[in-house]
């Protein structure tokens, strides 16, 4: 329930052991003035440092201000512990258009994502100039944080879309148990973990030789709102479900193995000569061995946003993946999955975003300071 340090070499909320709840918001910048944008980022940083420490924002907070003015803090987190709140910011490709004079600073790795086979993207749930990922073990704390950032941003930014997530679908530390996604499978077994420090340098954090300078120590975030056809999945046999994923549903072990963390044996064959881990299974297609060594730090959440009016739950996975270079990681992996993954019969991607998340904030500086 305690606080997670806001300041540090890397932004909190990436390798931080995944919290239980998510409120993710993508903002459009509505001001055209560069100075307004900088002022906003300064105000947001100050508020984020207070909220992640479990404090009200502003000088007077929620209830100690003058009677005549709206309170500086909206108040619904008063009395709640910080619940490991982290706030992580990222800048989308559209921020680097002509408005703020940032075009020359756009990182080459911050590409516009290509169209993937089967994409069914809703523009109103995609893109965004700025994203803020709020994660906390208490949903009210996460919602309070996004609400107050949106309120501070009034007249300068507007929420483009936001997403609540209620159950983590990955672990980012070996100390965490692997949770389950809405297909009922353990998700996050073969994830990058904070203990893999060498791998984090190779796969996650932008290195000095990658540039640009303002991104060194940061990472790129790809977000995908993935709708799951859970009603169809729920009528699929257990054996078929396990074949699609390539792992057992109970243990999470790779097919043909006994324990969750056993290495996957892609060469093992059944008595009929077919591979135990099928060629078109999700874990085979997503595995670094078949993706030139590329890995991702996955940090997604389950969502159920009511129903779709057709008797089906509007449910799925809000996929969040951090990486050093999406051109070598998310894009080729997703291209391969989009082409051949049998899971595609049960999912479709309906929202998408890509964001450059700079390095951590040092005391006295602000989110993205080196960009300006
Ligand atoms: C592994 C589910 C989408 C990349 C897994 C595993 C499950 C799973 C159950 C096995 C456990 C684990 O190692 O974490 C899903 C579901 C998805 C989805 C239900 C969509 C609703 C994606 C997407 C990507 C991706 C879009 C990337 C483009 C990976 C990777 C692994 C993995 C890299 C680890 C493979 C390995 O090294 O063994 N996923 N996944 N997944 N998934 Fe997904």
What's the alpha carbon Rg, rounded to whole Å? 21 Å
The coarse overall form would be globular
| Total DSSP E strands | 10
Give unreliable regions as ranges.
none
Which ligands does the model contain, each kind named once?
protoporphyrin IX containing FE
Q: List SSEs in N-to-C order.
A: EHEEHEEHEHHHEEEHE
The fraction of residues assigned to DSSP E strands is 15-25%
Q: How many strands, which pairing sense, and closed or not: the largest β-sheet? A: 6 strands, antiparallel
Instruction: Tell me the span between the first and last alpha carbons.
Output: 35 Å
Residues in helix, % = 10-25%
Number of helices: 7
Task: Write a structural description.
- The protein has 372 residues and is α+β, with helices and mostly antiparallel strands.
- It contains seven helices and ten strands.
- Strands 5, 6, 7, 8, 9 and 10 form a six-stranded antiparallel sheet that branches. A four-stranded antiparallel sheet has the order 2-3-1-4, with helices on one face.
- Helix 1 runs antiparallel to helix 2.
- It binds protoporphyrin IX containing FE.
- The site of protoporphyrin IX containing FE has 28 residues, from strand 6, helix 6, strand 9 and helix 7.
Could you list some keywords that capture this structure?
single chain; alpha+beta; 6-stranded antiparallel sheet; 4-stranded antiparallel sheet; 7 helices
